[in-house]
């Protein structure tokens, strides 16, 4: 896991080595200055106690100030460059991660609801970005500085140097021991926050359901359980991330006392000056400071690691629907074959059991059955949102698993009752951000669907911005947009999954002509609960509890008096 | 309402917690002043060449003891910080959701849901971090004052001069504060755009995959990310780089001044090495404080932005004040008496609406001057084409939208607060696109109602859900997944319908109830609805089966009532209803022909 995370880091620093080099130069410069400056302080103390000339003392003071000011300039510039590098790197990571998750199959999408993915890709990657931007300075820089301090104290007196070395070694041993202490707490906090986000997202879209059914107290009660958890996790993660730095602080005090005591003894023996003691004590404080800031970074490092683990889990996640196929279906309409297909969303229960049928190219099939009988699952298998667990689905004679995924999907158009919209212009919602489709083509599609009137009423025409949660249009209007979307897409296989359920009968009839035009020369599967919707299809298939109950040409079934289909029609008329 | 008053209101919700926190802050910050006093004593003794007897070693032991005490105070104060940060976040979140639930149908601002969720979770964190930082700064301030007093007692002149550059830096930072605020706002806005688009992308995975639109959608995402990068860098340039440099340099300048001024005093013995050590140590602490001040000022300013962003996401009203001044009551657990929305039950005899009008500001559509009359036991069906205002009418009647004109009367008396009144036991509602939450089927149906066997089986039967309950993995205790994703569309709709029935309300209001049901289920649903004795219904539907059962039909067209009457009357007299039934031509087509 650690190796995966590290290789992820290297991938995203690639291409930025120029800036990274600048960063390193600034870093080394600032560390050198930070090490040299205190020497002038020590010199000042020795000169002052020895009664040197005022000008000598003042010179030391001025040099000290100059060195520190120049160093701060280095730090500031490096801070900016570091931030720049980190944003560039994490933006690329965000983008790759998003593309990867977008391309994963539907079982993944069900496992990770949008709220959680946003938390991972935006929240976790942002933590990583903060870490990136300070990592160089506060981790690598502090490590180098600490090493420099130990070397310089050895120069003052080897015994004091040895003392500080012992201190640093002890701290780094303790440090490694305590490294993981806050990870589970931080992970739990983040989990709590993403659960809360998920809950809020659900609530913000269901306010009417809740309000008009008197369920406010219930929702507020569920919220308060999330919030209690949030308070508890916030506290425990804050305390846990301080345990380690606290232990460090005590050991720093012990080291400081030891340096002073040891220095005093050496002073009495005459092997050390008082300026030397002060310098050693100053360095101890600086070392402590540097190790402390290192441990703060460890806190961040820990939360970044926790995030990194979740990110690489996503990054290296292999889809359940591998895109390894290379075949393509020949141009033009193709036939659809289900050959003893077995399928379930989990291992316990099969949604489809031994389903077989053949739909010839250019003909249409009406799928009927109770809700939950597996109709939509058939559509999902054809688009390869899932893979079959037994048997095979074939398009144009080729198993869908042997077809390249992109070209396969570009041949299929699906309209479901839930229309997915973006907070974007009508144009972008219809073309899905493609600029290859001319406005004229879009307007023409509106006209062919008889929606020209509706279109001309839009405030800014195709530039009218609609909201992503569909609040700015009715469910029926959204579905009409979905029809236009598929018109523009021009697929060879058309799947209508209760496509007109939210369009009133009048409008449905209006677009029926358009549908007829769309169906002509295409293979089509029409999933419907209304018999009127399948009035014009060539074949009928009735599903019951995942198995084929009846199938055949519509005309034949219609004229067979004991067929299930005829019975359904009779029931509907009654 | 200013940021400071808003933060003060948050503090006043839990005053004791804040008092305790301040106590711990004082301890956490006061104790670290002691080591420098000890070290000063050590250096002065060493300068005087004193022998190393027991007193000297005791000083070193005290040095370590003080560190232990400080760590204890630190951990206690961190724990308290965490508690109050979480509590404050909880307060804001709870008040936010309560406000949103109180005005459910209000026209939402243009802010996408994903952005709203981001605001509630991230911006509340930012606000409370700023509050905690302010408390920490307060402690550090007390520490700085103490340090200043000690330094002043040692050497007033040097102490005063050392503070000059700090005051200058403070001035500089105040001058730049407006730019900080502006840049921060822009970078948060860009961040909101990124997360909203990200959420929409994952909400639209299926459409994107089918259209092979991944790359195009990604282009859009890349663009938004770039904007955020630029704005964040600019914001950071100001806060971290510019402000950080000013403060740190000020501190070192201070140390330089101490060195220069003390050089002469060393010679005449009025300033000792111990004093110098103490001055340099305390300057460090005071610098920490001053940089904390700038940080917490900046973060309070950012918190102001964040609070503004959260209240912008609320329906109209005095947003910010509502978020912080309201003290939410702790909700009682489900299935208890206190749990449900309480409203005095006045059994329905007659519901009337007169002159109801509402026009959506964004689209210009809505309803105009609509009258309705629903006596007890009636079954009123509202019908009409897409966009004719059917759903808007239901929302107005239920108080989910506040009418711009018109009145609603219940048993002849005007209902002053429809939103508060139209809840069970008066009414229950199933929207056109019902939403479920990630919980079990049972929890989704009950939403906190007592779990009574009889009520549940009645509701399940009326909603024709019994067969589904049988086949679901865990029956009524099956988890439905986020947004009910594990159920089929029809199942989800019928769970929502059962939710309505379970409330056993006088008036049932439902919008396009059978839109995703198969023929048999639909027929059963209407049959079983008919079995409910004395049940009053207001329904939106374009289905013949509904018309046949209706006692009264209202035909809507372009936001107005076009015709009303019984099915038999309208079947003969209303061309609109005939079109809906037989669909020779639809209203839309007629319009496009006349234009």
From TrEMBL, chain A:
One of its GO terms (molecular function) is helicase activity. Gene3D superfamilies: ABC transporter type 1, transmembrane domain, P-loop containing nucleotide triphosphate hydrolases. SUPFAM superfamilies: ABC transporter transmembrane region, P-loop containing nucleoside triphosphate hydrolases. GO terms for cellular component: plasma membrane. It is found in: Cell membrane. It holds the Pfam family ABC_tran. Belongs to the ABC transporter superfamily. Lipid exporter (TC 3.A.1.106) family. InterPro entries: AAA+_ATPase, ABC1_TM_dom, ABC1_TM_sf, ABC_transporter-like_ATP-bd, ABC_transporter-like_CS, P-loop_NTPase, Type_1_exporter. It is a multi-pass membrane protein. Residues 22-303 form the ABC transmembrane type-1 domain. SMART domains: AAA. Its main location: membrane. The chain crosses the membrane at residues 20-41, 135-154, 160-178, 243-267. It comes from Virgisporangium aliadipatigenens. The keyword Hydrolase applies. Keywords: ATP-binding, Cell membrane, Helicase, Hydrolase, Membrane, Nucleotide-binding, Transmembrane, Transmembrane helix, Transport. This is Helicase. Residues 336-570 form the ABC transporter domain.
From TrEMBL, chain B:
It comes from the Bacteria. GO terms for cellular component: plasma membrane. The keyword Transmembrane helix applies. InterPro entries: AAA+_ATPase, ABC1_TM_dom, ABC1_TM_sf, ABC_transporter-like_ATP-bd, P-loop_NTPase, Type_1_exporter. Gene3D superfamilies: ABC transporter type 1, transmembrane domain (1.20.1560.10), P-loop containing nucleotide triphosphate hydrolases (3.40.50.300). Keywords: ATP-binding, Membrane, Nucleotide-binding, Transmembrane, Transmembrane helix. It is a multi-pass membrane protein. It comes from Virgisporangium aliadipatigenens. It is found in: Cell membrane. GO terms for molecular function: ABC-type transporter activity; ATP binding; ATP hydrolysis activity. Residues 351-583 form the ABC transporter domain. The keyword Nucleotide-binding applies. The chain crosses the membrane at residues 54-76, 126-152, 158-175, 237-264, 276-300. This is HlyB/MsbA family ABC transporter. Residues 322-342 are annotated as: Disordered. Residues 19-302 form the ABC transmembrane type-1 domain. It holds the Pfam family ABC_membrane.
């Amino acid at each position: 896991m650690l190796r995966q995370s590290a290789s992820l880091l290297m991938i995203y620093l690639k291409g930025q080595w120029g800036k990274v080099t600048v960063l390193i130069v600034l870093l080394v410069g600032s560390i050198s200055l930070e090490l040299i400056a205190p020497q002038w302080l020590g010199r000042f103390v020795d000169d002052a106690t020895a009664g040197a000339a005022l000008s000598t003392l003042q010179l030391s003071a001025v040099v000290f100030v100059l060195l520190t000011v120049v160093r701060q300039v280095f730090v500031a510039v490096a801070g900016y460059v570091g931030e720049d590098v980190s944003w560039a790197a994490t933006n690329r990571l965000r983008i790759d991660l998003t593309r990867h998750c977008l391309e994963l199959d539907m079982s993944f999408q069900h496992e990770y609801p949008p709220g959680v993915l946003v938390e991972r890709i935006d929240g976790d990657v942002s933590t990583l970005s903060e870490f990136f931007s300070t990592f160089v300075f506060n981790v690598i820089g502090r490590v180098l500085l600490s090493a420099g301090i130990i070397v310089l104290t050895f120069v003052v007196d080897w015994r004091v140097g040895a003392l500080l070395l012992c201190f640093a070694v002890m701290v780094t041993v303790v440090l490694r021991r305590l490294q993981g202490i806050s990870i589970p707490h931080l992970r739990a906090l983040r989990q709590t926050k993403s659960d809360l986000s998920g809950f809020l997202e659900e609530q913000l879209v269901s306010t009417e359901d809740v309000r008009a059914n008197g369920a406010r107290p219930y929702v507020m009660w569920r919220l308060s359980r999330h919030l209690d958890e949030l308070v508890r996790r916030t506290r425990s993660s804050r305390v846990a991330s301080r345990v380690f730095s606290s232990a460090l602080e005590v050991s720093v005090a012990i080291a400081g006392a030891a340096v002073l005591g040891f220095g005093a003894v050496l002073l009495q023996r005459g092997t050390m000056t008082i300026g030397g003691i002060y310098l050693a004590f100053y360095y101890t404080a600086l070392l402590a400071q540097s190790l402390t800031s290192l441990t703060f970074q460890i806190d961040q490092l820990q939360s970044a690691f926790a995030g990194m683990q979740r990110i690489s889990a996503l990054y290296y996640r292999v889809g359940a629907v591998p895109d390894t196929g290379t075949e393509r279906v020949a141009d033009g309409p193709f036939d659809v074959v289900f050959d003893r297909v077995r399928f379930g969303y989990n291992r316990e229960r099969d949604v489809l059991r031994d389903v077989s049928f053949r739909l010839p190219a250019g003909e249409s099939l009406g799928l009927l059955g109770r809700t939950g009988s597996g109709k939509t699952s058939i559509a999902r298998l054809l688009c390869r949102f899932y893979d079959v667990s037994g048997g095979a689905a074939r398009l144009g004679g080729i198993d869908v698993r042997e077809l390249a995924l992109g070209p396969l999907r570009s041949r299929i158009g699906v309209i479901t009752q839930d229309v997915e919209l973006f907070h974007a212009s009508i144009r972008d919602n219809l073309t899905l951000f493609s600029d290859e489709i001319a406005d004229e083509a879009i307007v023409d599609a509106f006209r062919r669907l008889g929606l020209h009137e509706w279109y001309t009423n839009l405030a800014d025409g195709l530039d009218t911005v609609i909201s992503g949660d569909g609040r700015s249009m009715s469910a029926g209007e959204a579905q009409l947009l979905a029809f236009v979307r598929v018109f523009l897409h021009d697929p060879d296989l058309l799947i209508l999954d209760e496509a007109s359920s939210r369009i009133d009968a009048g409008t449905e009839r209006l677009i029926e002509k358009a549908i007829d035009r769309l169906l002509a020369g295409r293979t089509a599967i029409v999933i419907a609960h209304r018999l009127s919707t399948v009035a014009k299809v060539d074949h009928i298939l009735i599903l019951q509890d995942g198995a084929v109950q009846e199938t055949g040409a519509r005309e034949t079934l219609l004229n067979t008096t004991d067929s299930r289909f005829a019975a359904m029609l009779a029931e509907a008329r009654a | 309402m200013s940021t400071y008053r808003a933060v003060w209101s948050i503090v006043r919700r839990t005053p004791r917690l804040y008092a305790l926190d301040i106590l711990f802050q004082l301890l956490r910050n006061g104790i670290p002043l002691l080591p420098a006093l000890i070290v000063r004593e050590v250096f002065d003794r060493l300068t005087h060449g004193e022998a190393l007897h027991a007193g000297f070693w005791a000083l070193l032991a005290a040095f370590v003891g003080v560190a232990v005490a400080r760590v204890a105070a630190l951990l206690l104060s961190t724990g308290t910080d965490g508690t109050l940060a979480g509590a404050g976040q909880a307060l804001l979140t709870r008040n936010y959701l309560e406000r949103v639930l109180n005005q459910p149908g209000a026209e939402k601002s243009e802010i996408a849901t994903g952005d709203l969720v981001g605001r509630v979770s991230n911006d509340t964190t930012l606000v409370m971090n700023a509050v905690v930082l302010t408390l920490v700064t307060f402690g550090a301030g007390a520490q700085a004052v103490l340090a200043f007093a000690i330094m002043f007692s040692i050497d007033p002149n040097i102490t005063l001069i050392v503070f000059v550059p700090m005051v200058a830096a403070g001035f500089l930072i105040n001058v730049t504060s407006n730019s900080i605020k502006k840049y921060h706002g822009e970078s948060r806005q860009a961040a909101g755009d990124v997360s909203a688009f990200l959420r929409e992308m994952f909400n639209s995975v299926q459409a994107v995959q089918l259209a092979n639109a991944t790359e195009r959608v990604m282009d859009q995402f890349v663009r938004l990310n770039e904007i955020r990068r630029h704005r964040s860098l600019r914001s950071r340039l100001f806060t971290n780089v510019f402000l950080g440099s000013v403060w740190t340099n000020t501190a070192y300048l201070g140390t330089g001044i101490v060195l220069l001024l003390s050089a002469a005093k060393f010679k005449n013995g009025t300033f000792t090495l111990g004093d110098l050590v103490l001055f340099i140590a305390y300057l460090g602490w005071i610098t920490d404080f001053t940089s904390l001040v700038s940080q917490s000022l900046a973060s309070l300013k950012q918190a102001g932005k964040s609070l503004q962003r959260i209240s912008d996401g609320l329906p109209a009203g005095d947003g910010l004040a509502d978020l912080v001044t309201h003290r939410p009551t702790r909700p009682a657990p489900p299935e208890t008496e206190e749990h449900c929305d309480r409203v005095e039950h006045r059994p329905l005899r007659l519901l009337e609406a007169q002159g109801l009008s509402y026009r959506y500001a964004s689209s210009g559509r809505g309803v105009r001057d609509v009258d309705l009359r629903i006596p007890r036991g009636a079954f009123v069906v509202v019908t009409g084409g897409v966009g004719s205002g059917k759903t808007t009418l239901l929302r107005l009647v239920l108080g989910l939208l506040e009418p711009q004109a018109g009145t609603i009367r219940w048993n002849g008396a005007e209902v002053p607060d429809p939103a508060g009144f139209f809840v069970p036991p008066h009414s229950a509602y199933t929207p056109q696109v019902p939403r479920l939450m990630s919980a079990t089927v049972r929890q989704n149906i009950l939403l906190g109602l007592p779990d009574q066997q009889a009520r549940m089986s009645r509701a399940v039967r009326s909603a024709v859900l019994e067969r589904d309950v049988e086949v679901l993995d865990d029956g009524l205790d099956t988890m439905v997944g986020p947004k009910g994703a594990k159920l089929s569309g029809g199942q989800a709709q019928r769970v929502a319908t059962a939710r309505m029935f379970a409330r056993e309300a006088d008036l049932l209001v439902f919008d396009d109830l059978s839109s995703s049901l198969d023929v048999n289920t639909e027929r059963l649903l209407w049959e079983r609805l008919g079995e409910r004795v004395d049940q009053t219904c207001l329904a939106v539907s374009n289905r013949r089966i509904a018309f046949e059962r209706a006692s009264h039909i209202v035909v809507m067209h372009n936001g107005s009532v076009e015709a009303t009457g019984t099915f038999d009357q309208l079947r003969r007299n209303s061309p609109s209803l005939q079109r809906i039934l037989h669909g020779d031509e639809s209203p839309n087509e007629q319009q496009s022909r006349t234009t």
